[in-house]
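haha ok so turns out i had the wrong file open the whole time. this is the CORRECT one, sorry everyone. sequence first:
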Amino acid sequence: MSLKDRLTDDMKTALRMGDKIRLSTIRLLRAQIKDREIERGNVLSDEDVLEVLTRAAKMRREAIDSY
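then structure:
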């Protein structure tokens, strides 16, 4: 199962459980992945998806530190 598929499954689970924070976080991450795919013009591999997720996590940690 690819990382994108797993995110989709996790999003469905969060939707069913009513977990709004998890749902919004996964939607944000999927949007960043989709933006990267549009930027590159092709479907991302798992390594590329992991790179996008790592970059997103780093941005969040830096934001937390600055506040």
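The CA atoms of residues 58 and 64 lie 10 Å apart.
again sry for the mixup
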